[in-house]
Structure formats: C-alpha cells, structure tokens
C-alpha cells in the first residue's frame, strides 16, 4: 500500500473484515500486511478489535451503531491513529450493520471468524509456472528450486515455531540444519522430515509416481496413502511410490541425473510417450495431445536442453526417429503416426 494511503488503513481494514473490499484493493491490503512483521501485527490487532466490537456481547447489548463506536474507541485506546475522513467512516458504518446481520444469522463467534481471516493472510504461495523455474531462499536460508508447473506453500511465521512447506510438483531442497526444529515437506501422498540435508522431491498430481531422491544427509518418509512403517533414506537412495498401489519402495541410484532438470536438461531413457508429453508441456508451457491413445506406450530415447532447444527442435528430432510425426493445430501440437 502506498505511503500516502496509510492514513486510511483502518477504513481499508474495516472494509476487508466486512467482506466489502474489492479484489484489487484486497490484494493491496494483503501485500501491505505481508510487507513486514509490524504491518502484520497491526492488522491482527485491528482484527481483534473489530470482531470484539461488532460480534459478541457488545453487539447484542448496544446494536450496530454503538458497536462501531466501540470499535473506534478501542482503536484510540490501543494506539493513536491519524484522523480518517468522516464520509469514509460513514461508509464503513454501513458495513458494520451488514456484518452484524451476518453474525446473528450465521451464529459465528468472533474468534472463529477472526481465525478464518488470519488464515487468509497467513500463507505465502510460490509458483514456478509452466515453461519456467523458480529459485528462492526460505526465511531460514534453505535453498529451494521449483521445477516448471510446481507450487509451494508455507506459513508467514515459518521458522518461528516450525519449518513446514507443502509442495505440489517438483522441488530441490538444500535445507539449513536446525536440530531443534526439523524441516518438513508434505505433498498429498508423502510427508518428508529432515534436520538438514539435500534432496529432490517430485509429486505432480497428474503423474502416477512419487519420487524422493536423496543427495546428502538423511531423510525420513511417511506414507500418507496407507499405513506402513516410515522409511529412512541414505545418500544415493531414492523412494519410488506407485500411487495406485500406495506403497513406498527403496532403490539405489548410480548417478545424480535426477537433478539435471535444474540445468534445463530433459532426458528420456525409454520413457513412454505420454510421460514425455507431460514433461514437454510443463517445460514449454505447451498443449500437446495424441491423435491415437495407442501411441501412449511408445518408448522414446533422447537427451535435450530446453535452454538451447525449442519445442519444435525436439519434436523434429523425435520425428526423425521414424517413430512419430506431428502437426500443428491452432495452439496445440498433435502427435500422429
């Protein structure tokens, strides 16, 4: 939020908490809250004052108008704020009445509502869109590299009481060691716990396998599909889970080829064509489909670099093998015999 708008922050918060703030301004407010710990504390303080003023015993006793005045008095008592335009407060007062009705009809306590709103602003989401990669460091200095088409979510207070992230897709992690606070990565199917190590975690929703590959240290894996004993991995080992069977299987690795994706490398070693298509779609943000389903199991071999070769280059090379052909149809690529 711009500096010259800070005087109006309480009115923005009032509109947000009443559900009347538009999506654009809501995004601005959320960005302002996420900008610093001071802003976050300020918001949470105002949130508590708001709900205690408009939902609960004071609302039932005094009504919406008195409740709003109580909200203003509580703000003044908690911390002196710059004056806000009278028309803005009158507009916000109408929102208080609306919230009062919602509170009475829905029978929500202000604390539950407050928790829901805290949850709204309590998560940070990082994405690597199709055709790209994202590299970042978490607040504890842990390095994370997300592969194309991946998404990671973690709490704003990451590192305060716990270190947990939720992952959808593929990510490489170099975890900063902290023996007092384990690092945890969870997907829909697997939960991984480490103290400090280097590993690759792959769990795309559209794929039928989960693969966790360990480069250094030690990791512990918990099955979230079915009950079985936790699995501990050592360096140069990986866990492969078939999502249909739901069981973890340990395998030895001869090389670190699983990390080549970070350098833009795409390697297919007898990979079924339908799996090749998944990788190409994510890597190039493209739409590719098979003309005949019978082509799905065709196995292809090749090593490519998406930083140096375009999608058409790869398709031309695969076509030169004589196994497939392709044609362009509007914004899609059609694989044919």
Automatic annotation (TrEMBL):
Domain Protein FecR C-terminal: 265-335
GO molecular function list: sigma factor antagonist activity
Species of origin: Candidatus Bacteroides pullicola
Full protein name: DUF4974 domain-containing protein
Domain FecR protein: 126-219
Protein origin, superkingdom: Bacteria
């Amino acid at each position: 939020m711009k500096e010259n708008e800070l005087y109006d922050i309480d009115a923005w918060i009032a509109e947000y908490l009443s559900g009347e703030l538009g999506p654009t301004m809501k995004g601005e407010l959320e960005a302002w809250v996420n900008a610093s710990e001071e802003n976050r504390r300020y918001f949470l303080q105002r949130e508590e004052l708001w709900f205690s003023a408009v939902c609960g015993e004071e609302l039932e006793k005094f009504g919406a108008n008195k409740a709003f005045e109580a909200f203003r008095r509580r703000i003044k008592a908690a911390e002196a704020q710059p004056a806000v335009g009278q028309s803005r407060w009158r507009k916000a007062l109408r929102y208080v009445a609306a919230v009062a009705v919602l509170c009475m009809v829905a029978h929500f306590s202000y604390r539950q509502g407050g928790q829901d709103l805290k949850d709204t602003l309590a998560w940070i989401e990082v994405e690597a869109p199709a055709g790209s990669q994202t590299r970042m460091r978490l607040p504890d200095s842990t390095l994370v590299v997300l592969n194309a088409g991946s998404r990671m979510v973690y709490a704003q207070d990451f590192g305060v009481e716990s270190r947990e992230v939720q992952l959808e897709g593929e990510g490489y992690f170099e975890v900063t060691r902290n023996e007092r606070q384990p690092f945890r990565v969870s997907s829909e199917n697997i939960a991984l716990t480490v103290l400090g190590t280097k590993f690759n975690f792959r769990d795309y929703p559209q794929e039928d396998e989960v693969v966790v590959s360990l480069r250094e240290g030690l990791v512990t894996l918990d099955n979230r599909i079915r009950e079985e004993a936790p699995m501990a991995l050592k360096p140069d080992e990986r866990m492969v889970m078939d999502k249909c069977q739901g069981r973890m299987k340990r395998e030895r690795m001869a090389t670190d080829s699983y990390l080549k994706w970070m350098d833009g490398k795409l390697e297919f070693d007898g990979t079924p064509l339908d799996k090749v298509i998944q990788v190409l779609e994510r890597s190039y943000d493209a739409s590719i489909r098979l003309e005949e389903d019978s082509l799905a199991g065709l196995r292809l071999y090749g090593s490519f670099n998406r930083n140096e070769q375009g999608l058409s280059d790869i398709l031309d090379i695969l076509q030169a093998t004589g196994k497939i052909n392709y044609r362009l149809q509007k914004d899609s690529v059609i694989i044919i015999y």
